[in-house]
Amino acid sequence: MPAHDPDHHLWRNGRLWWIAFTVHLPGWQKExxxxxxxxADVVEARQRRDDxxxxxxxxxxxxxxxxxxxxxxxxxxxxxxxxxxSPAVAA
Length: 91
What we know:
By secondary structure, this protein is an alpha+beta fold. The protein contains two helices and four strands; from the N terminus they run βββαβα. About 25% of the residues lie in helices and about 25% in strands.
């Protein structure tokens, strides 16, 4: 399994690519964001995703909550809390 998924936060709905991510708002609130990237080309979708993830926190006054690394397989001996730790803490 690759260490980095080039299509993180992307999924294809019909012929178009969409992005999904979570933001943290003031007052301990979270919001799940799902937006169409208006393209059927995965390379263009990746570029639009990267641009959107760069701009979104500054334009909306929030913090991104991103999981870039692929999820661990269930049953691999890692408890629920282990998946939430950063790689430096888990080592």
